[in-house]
Design goal:
CATH architecture of the largest domain: 3-Layer(aba) Sandwich
CATH class of the largest domain: Alpha Beta
Number of strands: 12
Structural class: alpha/beta
Largest sheet: 5 strands, parallel
Shape: globular
Strand order of the largest sheet: 3-2-1-10-11
Number of helices: 11
Distance between the termini: 35 Å
Order of helices and strands: EHEHEHEEHEEHEEEEHHHHEHH
Length: 336
């Protein structure tokens, strides 16, 4: 039985190297049939990414008749500091008493990338939206005692994290049967280890055009450079804990506004209600403005024990090799 043609072909646009290459390939007609691109905004991308996205929309997407839809689940940098919201970054942690190291769970990709994209996909496929109904988590009041507060016998009410304090919820239903979207995802040949169909649903199936074309990240960069888009950067939040030293240095030396924001956030995120461990953006578990982000000589590693025995110098220098994607977190090594 043959698979029916998709109702829509939609690009997951992160505005990084690979997804930018896919948009240009579609606009040039080398990858025909793209009906739209969805950019999920965490609210914490560097200014250069938003400028890049604006330019893409004006110079590439609009002339090709490809709409770019911008969606958001909120500002991640505000939400994770809000004690009434159960949001977190995969920060590096340290127990101040024992010195034990760890890392927080990774939930940001699902919450701030994938969920808004899938919601928009359903809407584009014709899903209906319910009329606002009272939020059952706060009984329509817009306030409640956060679950973590209740566990600590703290009965201080705050804005409901489910309805964002509005007291109402409007649900997006399932799209009509028989409709589905082909989701274009920008994984290149060197990222094949990140490919997965776990996010596929009845109404959305993933496709990886760069793999079909046999294009690596390096080839994508060369292609973009030949088209005047050589300055395209890796997409990731300003305060992503998977940044390596090279990215932190670049930010400090060339983007002082983002660096100041990252330092401010790192200090504000150090502790939180009910937490025993301290949280850090840098793998050294030091305050970002004190972290060893300049290249460290092996002799210095012996003199200053700020990494444990399994310290990975390559990862600390370069960070995770991949950009942030709704379909795979940056928490993995490059595929061979």
């Amino acid at each position: 039985m043959t698979t029916p043609e998709p109702t829509l072909r939609l690009l997951s646009l992160g505005a990084g190297v690979q997804s930018t290459a896919l948009l240009l390939l579609a606009a040039e007609g080398r990858l025909p049939g793209l009906d739209g691109a969805i950019f999920s905004d965490t609210g914490w991308e560097p200014a250069a990414v938003y400028q890049h996205l604006d330019r893409l929309e004006t110079e590439v997407a609009q002339p090709a008749g490809i709409p770019i839809y911008r969606v958001s689940a909120g500002r991640i940098q505000d939400d994770v500091l809000n004690p009434d919201k159960q949001r977190s970054l995969p920060a590096h942690t340290r127990d101040p008493e024992t010195g034990d190291h760890g890392m927080l769970n990774r939930r940001c990709t699902q919450t701030y990338k994938l969920t808004p994209i899938m919601r928009k996909t359903r809407l584009l496929l014709g899903a209906s939206t319910s009329d606002p109904v009272p939020c059952r988590y706060c009984d329509g009041t817009g306030t409640r005692i956060a679950p973590w507060r209740a566990k600590l016998n703290d009965h201080t009410p705050g804005p409901c994290s489910v309805c964002d304090g509005t007291g109402t919820l409007a649900r997006v239903g399932q799209p009509p049967r028989g409709t589905w979207a082909e989701q274009w995802i920008g994984f290149s040949t060197d990222e094949i280890g990140r490919v997965s169909t776990r996010a596929d649903t009845r109404y959305a199936k993933s496709r990886h055009p760069l793999l079909e074309l046999g294009m690596s990240r390096t080839q994508c960069e060369a292609y973009l450079k030949s088209r005047g888009w050589g300055s395209t950067a890796k997409s990731a939040c300003i305060g992503c804990p998977f940044h390596g030293n090279a990215e932190w240095r670049r930010m400090r030396d060339t983007d002082p506004e983002s660096w100041a924001e990252a330092v401010r956030f790192d200090k504000a995120y150090r502790t939180g209600p009910g937490l025993r461990h301290e949280r850090f953006l840098h793998i050294s578990r030091r305050p970002l403005d004190e972290a060893p982000i300049d290249r460290v000589r092996p002799s210095e590693w012996k003199q200053d024990d700020f990494f444990d025995a399994v310290y990975d110098a390559e990862l600390a220098e370069n960070g995770d090799p991949d950009g942030c994607s709704p379909y795979a977190c940056r928490s993995g090594s490059a595929a061979a």
